[in-house]
Amino acid sequence: MGTEANGSFNFLIYGKTGWIGGLLGKLCESQGISYTYGSGRLQDRQSIVTDIESVKPSHVFNAAGVTGRPNVDWCESHKVETIRTNVAGTLTLADICKEKGLVLINYATGCIFEYDSGHTLGSGIGFKEEDTPNFTGSFYSKTKAMVEELLKNYENVCTLRVRMPISSDLTNPRNFITKIARYEKVVDIPNSMTILDELLPISIEMAKRNLTGIYNFTNPGVVSHNEILEMYRDYIDPSFTWKNFTLEEQAKVIIAPRSNNELDATKLKTEFPEMLSIKESLIKFVFEPNKKVKA
């Protein structure tokens, strides 16, 4: 699609100050797509209606929400604030979009599952879009699972389950690689992850195709913490070292348990066959562009 074809699109994006929201604006600019950041608060219905009436968008993107700073433990002690944005706000936005006949692309989370007897670690059997969330260890994940269930009733919503997002910007503190490279110790568990440099352009394409429903928004396959840190050492910093600890040891330094899982990316891969596996995507989009180590 050339820029001419993009003239018919006009995106309204929520989450201007967020990581994904900021990247979406840059992508729209590079693709010549008209976009506006919403100024309304998600839980304030009238402010959203005002945004939509003034922008007259072709599609709405929701990259707003609270994940907590510095991490999801914040949500454990700020439950009402978490509900206000992640539950009331998201549902309000979906409801208004339904009234206005608009597709809503909603960046959600895949951290609502954990390995279990039917989806064991290393089995290659991932959770599918229609599976019922089984991880309620953190308040953040619990609210996200509730909202996903309710949003199933809105046929205008495209729910994208993002996991452990990674981008080529290794200075960003939200970047999963940057996070684990700075930790004193890391667990070493294979997980499904989202390479934003590859998948965010796909989400724009999903809007153009008016896709709705739930999608596991991760690259196919899994990668472990140690595998990522080995790549970091090999491509970025040969002197880099790290220490591992067990889930039991990790539990002593975090308030809420963390989700570890593999999501089945077949549905997304079928729609976008060119999508790379997680390790290929890491090398192409993250490590090669940042390469500092001389071959």
From TrEMBL:
GO terms for molecular function: dTDP-4-dehydrorhamnose 3,5-epimerase activity; dTDP-4-dehydrorhamnose reductase activity; methionine adenosyltransferase regulator activity. It comes from the Eukaryota. Residues 11-182 form the RmlD-like substrate binding domain. Coiled coil: none annotated. One of its GO terms (biological process) is dTDP-rhamnose biosynthetic process. One of its GO terms (cellular component) is cytoplasmic stress granule. Pfam families: RmlD_sub_bind. It comes from Arabis alpina (Alpine rock-cress). Pathway: Carbohydrate biosynthesis. Keywords: Isomerase, Oxidoreductase. InterPro entries: dTDP_dehydrorham_reduct, NAD(P)-bd_dom_sf, RmlD-like-bd. This is RmlD-like substrate binding domain-containing protein.
